[in-house]
């Protein structure tokens, strides 16, 4: 089942395993410049507010009610990353594994294929938590993603429109599969030893006080923005380990700030800073070392035009695309748990 | 008997409250709309007859704008759709219900609020 608590989605499978529970949050972040440079990881600026579409039945568009799920407000000047936090199984000192399919406008963010209600092993079209702590965009080549950025639906910018030539769905789609209890028990036997302390890995949440900037945006889907260094990791388990007939899924609709106010009666959060302003303020970027094999990336997604390339043909879509130099980068290392052995340099 | 009298007197209280404002809530008229004999409804209200079938209770709940599950509970019954849900996964739901039994209402509400999935 899927619940919404404190602006986070909680996917839990109590009938599979008591520890089979995964928190997914949608972090606000700045939009990295779209200038052919692969940027480090931008910061987390806090969670997007999330609300049930069913709490605004009188106001939201009818297709949103048909699809169900939740909604969040997004500015065209901001971007999103999605964070995965599986529950810790305290008996074993490991986090419960999940396979997670992510799509934008029903285009799979790992393969560029259109949505199906299944996951596939070849090519792998899902990420695996806890190995994958987050995903920031569309997987274009090995070690590079193109950032999830908000663009108005219906103007041809979004990944969905470029691939399907339709602006039907928009939003973000998430489908979660737990590992089967049998495979979990077999892979992670209970050991009689002291428990491993859970080292919670989270990007520092920092939100400098920003002036409220005037902003106007349209209905939203996700397009491919600037390039970022990020691995989408291989599934370290067997495909048969996943409880594939037992997924839970959620449709996350994207509203612009005016729609949000109309739907919920709440103001959307302030706009995030630009990448240039953020860097000039001396605030840090991040680099993550996971030390695991990763996927090659999708040729379909590689073929997506950037917002900038499309903008050359159309109106000027972005007010701000200033490059960034001399940024301060903090390195994050994957916290190792008892289940994974690190390989080093011999 | 206590339980069914509770059901009957609750029913009569609710019906008479509405009747105070609207004559359509007389025993005769409510019984007619529910599809039972007025004397039967009257006996149920006085606790002289045990509560009627689930179907009839649901019809009465609709007439009086009452919650069907609450009326069924007053009658000592659990709706058949809930029974079917529990029968499908008995161990899980038995555990869930036992865990919920001492939680305050707001916590129970939080537990049952799922994100609704629809047609994509």
Structure description:
The complex is a heterodimer of chains A (346) and B (120). Chain A is an alpha+beta fold and 346 residues long. Helices cover 13% and strands 30% of the residues of chain A. In chain A, strands 1, 2, 3, 4, 7, 13, 14, 15 and 17 form a nine-stranded mixed beta sheet that branches. In chain A, β8 and β9 form a beta hairpin. Chain A is globular. With 120 residues, chain B is mainly α. In chain B, α1 crosses α3, α2 packs across α3 and α6 crosses α7. Chains A and B meet through β1, α1 and β18 of A and loops of B.
The pair of chains with the biggest contact is: A-B, 24 and 12 residues
Oligomer: heterodimer
User: What's the SSE pattern of chain A?
Assistant: EEEEEHEEEEEEEEEEHEHEEHHEHHE
Estimate percent helicity of chain B: 55-70%
Helix content range of chain A: 10-25%
Tell me what portion of residues of chain B adopts beta-strand conformation: under 5%
Q: Major sheet of chain A, described briefly?
A: 9 strands, mixed
Amount of beta strand of chain A: 25-35%
**Averaged pLDDT of chain A:** 84
**Tally of separate helices of chain A:** 7
How many individual β-strands of chain B?
0
Average pLDDT level of chain B:
87
Broad shape of chain A: globular
Rounded to the nearest angstrom, the radius of gyration of chain A is 20 Å
Structural class of chain A: alpha+beta
Overall 3D form of chain B: elongated
Can you summarize this structure?
The complex is a heterodimer of chains A (346) and B (120). Chain A is an alpha+beta fold and 346 residues long.
Question: What's the SSE blueprint?
Answer:
The complex is a heterodimer of chains A (346) and B (120).
Chain A: E1 2-5, E2 8-12, E3 21-30, E4 38-39, E5 51-52, H1 62-67, E6 70-73, E7 78-86, E8 88-89, E9 94-95, E10 98-104, E11 107-108, E12 127-129, E13 134-135, E14 137-141, E15 144-152, H2 159-164, E16 172-178, H3 181-187, E17 220-229, E18 248-255, H4 257-264, H5 275-280, E19 285-289, H6 299-302, H7 307-313, E20 329-333
Parallel strand pairs in A: 4-17, 6-18, 19-20
Antiparallel strand pairs in A: 1-2, 2-3, 3-7, 5-6, 7-13, 7-15, 8-9, 10-11, 10-12, 10-16, 14-15, 15-17, 16-18
Chain B: H1 2-19, H2 27-34, H3 38-46, H4 54-64, H5 68-74, H6 80-88, H7 90-100, H8 105-112
Helix pairs in contact in B: 1-3, 2-3, 4-5, 6-7
């Amino acid at each position: 089942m899927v619940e919404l608590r404190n602006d986070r989605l909680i996917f839990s499978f109590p009938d599979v395993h008591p520890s089979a529970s995964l928190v997914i949050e949608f972090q606000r972040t700045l939009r990295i410049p779209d200038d052919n440079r692969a940027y480090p990881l931008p910061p987390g600026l806090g969670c997007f507010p999330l609300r049930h579409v069913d709490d605004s039945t009188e106001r939201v568009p009818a297709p949103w009610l048909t699809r169900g799920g939740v909604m969040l407000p997004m500015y065209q000047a901001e971007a999103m990353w999605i964070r995965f936090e599986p529950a810790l199984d305290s008996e074993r000192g490991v986090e419960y594994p999940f396979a997670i399919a992510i799509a934008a406008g029903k285009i799979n963010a790992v393969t560029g294929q259109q949505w199906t209600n299944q996951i596939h092993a070849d090519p792998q079209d899902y990420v695996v938590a806890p190995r994958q702590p987050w995903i920031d965009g569309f997987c274009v080549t090995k070690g590079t993603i193109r950032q999830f950025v908000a663009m108005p639906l219906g103007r041809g910018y979004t990944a969905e429109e470029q691939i399907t030539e339709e602006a039907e769905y928009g939003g973000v789609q998430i489908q979660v599969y737990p590992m089967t209890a049998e495979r979990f028990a077999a892979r992670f036997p209970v050991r009689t030893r002291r428990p491993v302390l859970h080292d919670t890995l989270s990007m520092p949440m920092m939100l400098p006080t920003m002036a409220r900037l005037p902003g106007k945006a349209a209905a939203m889907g996700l397009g491919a923005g600037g390039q970022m260094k990020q691995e989408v990791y291989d599934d370290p388990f067997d495909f048969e380990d996943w409880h594939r007939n037992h997924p839970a899924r959620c449709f996350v609709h994207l509203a612009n700030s005016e729609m949000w106010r109309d739907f919920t009666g709440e103001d959307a959060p302030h706009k995030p800073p630009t990448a240039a302003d953020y860097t000039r303020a001396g605030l840090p970027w991040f680099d993550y070392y996971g030390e695991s094999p990763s996927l090659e990336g999708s040729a379909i997604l590689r073929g997506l035009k950037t917002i900038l390339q499309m903008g050359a043909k159309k109106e000027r879509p972005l007010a701000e695309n200033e490059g960034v130099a001399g940024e301060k980068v903090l390195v994050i290392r994957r916290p190792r748990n008892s289940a994974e052995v690190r390989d080093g340099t011999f | 008997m206590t339980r069914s009298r509770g059901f009957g007197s609750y029913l009569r209280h609710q019906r008479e409250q509405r009747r105070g404002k609207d004559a359509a809530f007389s025993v005769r008229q409510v019984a007619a709309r529910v599809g039972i004999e007025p004397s039967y409804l009257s006996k149920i209200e006085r606790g002289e007859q045990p509560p009627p079938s689930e179907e009839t209770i649901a019809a009465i709940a609709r007439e009086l704008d009452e919650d069907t599950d609450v009326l069924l509970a007053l009658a000592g019954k659990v709706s058949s759709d809930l029974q079917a849900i529990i029968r499908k996964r008995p161990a899980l739901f038995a555990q869930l219900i036992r865990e919920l039994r001492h939680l305050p209402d707001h916590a129970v509400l939080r537990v049952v609020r799922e994100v609704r999935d629809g047609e994509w």
